[in-house]
Specification:
The complex is a heterodimer of chains A (514) and B (311). Chain A has 16 helices and 20 strands. With 514 residues, chain A is an alpha+beta fold. In chain A, strands 11, 12, 13, 14, 15, 16, 17 and 18 form an eight-stranded mixed β-sheet that branches. Chain A has a four-stranded mixed β-sheet with strand order 1-10-9-8, with no helix packed on it. Chain A is globular and about 75 Å long. Chain B is 78% helix and 0% strand. The chains are: A alpha+beta (514), B mainly alpha (311).
Amino acid sequence: MRRPGRSYSLLFAACLVVGLVGISLTPGSSAPKTGGKVRMSLADSDVTSFDPIVPFDNMSIWTMLHVYDQLVRVGKDGRSVEPDAADTWKVSQDGKTWTFHIRNGIKFSDGSPLTAADAAFSLKRAVSKDSNFADSFGLFEDAAAPDASTLVVTLKKPWASFLAYASLYTASIVPEKLVNAQGKDFWEKPVGSGPYVLTEWIKNDHLTLKRNPGYWQKPYPYLDELRFDVLTDDNTRMLKLRSGELDIATNVPPNQVEALRKTKGLAVELFPQLRFDFVYYNHGKKPFDDLRVRQALNYALDRPAMLKAVMFGYGKVAASMLPPMLYWNDQLKPYAHDVAKAKALMKEAGYANGFSTEILVVAGDNQASQIATILKDAYREIGIDVKVTLLEAGAIRARRKVSDFDMIKGYYTSDVIDPDELIAFGIDAAGGAVAKWMNFKNEHLSTLAAAANSEMNAKKRETMIHEVQKIAYDQAAVIPLFYADNRTAIWDHVKDFSQLPTANYRLWEAWVSK
Amino acid sequence: MGRYLARRLLLLLPVALGITIVAFFLLRLIPGDPAVIMLDNRATAENVARLRHQLGLDRPLSVQYLLFLRNIVTGQLGDSLVYRSAVLPIIAGHLPVTLFLAVYAIVLAAILAIPLGIWAALRKNRAPDHAIRLGVLVSLATPSYWIAIVFLLVFSIHLRWFPVGGYGETFVDHLRHLFLPAMTIAISLSPILVRTLRHNILEVLRQDYVRTARAKGLRGGVVFVRHVLRNSLVSTVSVLGVYLGFLVGGAVVTETVYAIPGTGYLLIKSTFGRDYPMVQGLTLTFATLVILVNLLTDLTYAFLDPRVRYE
């Protein structure tokens, strides 16, 4: 008769073996596989150009980031940059000279080496008069390549966010010789050093990218092929996803998220992005010149309810004019929904009986129309009669140019991890955009923003940028609404797909299990 | 015949010139600046000015129009504002898809409409006729984008018989990919054909020559096919010619819902983006097509109806 203990230990051993075998055979285990392809949608438009200094649309930008390398690129946390074509760099004491070491052995997809001269050429293109982004590089002075692997960039003055801008698609590194030799034709069949190579571009239909076998970062990319289908119609895009003709569908309409999540094998992921939705008013016009009125407009609004109605809750209600990002001021709290306080402020400002006003909304933008309708209802409670006017974008711009408006629905997104771009675009009148359009001028804020831009000490800079956000908040510069999440639907055979806060994706890290 | 053809082709010139004027100036009446649309929320004054200059939009309208005419004469249609590359190869790439779809839709519409039209005419004012006429009304009143979405949900998502959209690579692929879209257009097109055909058959049945043919002792089937159907089809074909414009319009909606890379989809996208050269190029292409098909329709008359002579 065997002792029971022994049979138990045998049983235990057997279970262990079976268990181990089971684990190693479980599909979807974490070891990435090489090969396969992924089909993904381009939801806004077709790619329009592969010339880094030309396009403004995200589809071009995000696709191009798979074809070219930059000196550095946005890290996965969305708050830092990491090495790309340059593996190391240092900045001089005075903050005006940056020296980059170009990675040894890095090659373009045609096999030719990527040199510091190519990097210098590409940076100079980005600041040239042909570049649509020259003003992003206003503090750039020169770039030189003393040898094949050393790039020296000189700046007009210290520029704290320079590295963030060096990761911009505009600063993508292209082969100098080929670009000069082929001219315009080069951009139809571009050559870069990124993880993928463009092999096919059927305009307004699809693009195919194949893996670059010589890509510097092993073991990436995993996927042999990426196919991007231009699918701008929301319904068609979701149907293509459900039928399995797409592996990843971007920009899922908020009202379809729940339904898609019920489909077996489909996940809808929410990725926070650097986007801010708001309503701005004309500070140069009565009654918006009165801080109390602006505050009343902010208090009268039920932001969580709006977020739920418009975005089905996929996002966060906003306080700061910057979305959650580097140097974001988390001390600012969204204005509470307080109708009594709003009424009191209106009375104090001498508008106890309210007033009539108008909000301009881009025709065809359903989300903006919904927001305008919600505002109209909310402001009726404090005696304000809001007329909602739908206009074509150009018509809104024309009225804005001559300051002939009361309120406009707006939004902005950031291409870089540093808040500098959005401060210039949104908050600081010196930036010549939103703040200037709405006649919001604050000298202290402008001085701080300029100082922050050349402050090389991160801690001090953070304090300054926090202050910039606080001034805008205290002044009720705009009506902050929400920070909307990116909604992306993914079939479960696609692994390790993620979207950065800059909303671009790193498909070289993704792989498929089937 | 030769002289007739030459005159018709010559008449094309003033028509084409008229089309260029309409295409060019009407397009610019639509509010919206291409530069502003491209820039979206980056449309600062400086950006807009620079982009307008790069795209040549800051030149006087008359100069832009003359450049457009010069481009046409030299056999080009200019560069797309969006892609900044020649318009013609892009249109040429999309045109076969739309033509395939149009022909496919006509074939399907004919397969649907001819038997129904005949049946309705032969059973005039009886149950089948009433049912067919009701069906015609319903399908006329149903918007094609709705049909498209229902088709997609039923045949692509639930039954998985057909892909959701696209064009495919081979001829068989095209037939499969374009079946639902062609059917969608055919469903909008066939009621018109059914009604016309039914009406024409009834008309022809009353003609003396039909009675004569019957009196001569010809069999009913022969009379119907040789005398009634052939004569009824003449005017039905001319209706098809007229409806080519409708087909192109239908293709715009259908191609958008099914995401088919044809000219209709391209037209929608280019209009939203105010890609003037692309829209102009497409308008010219469509106009030329409509004119050519109408010409072809006129010529088909001669084949179907020997009484038609060209002077």
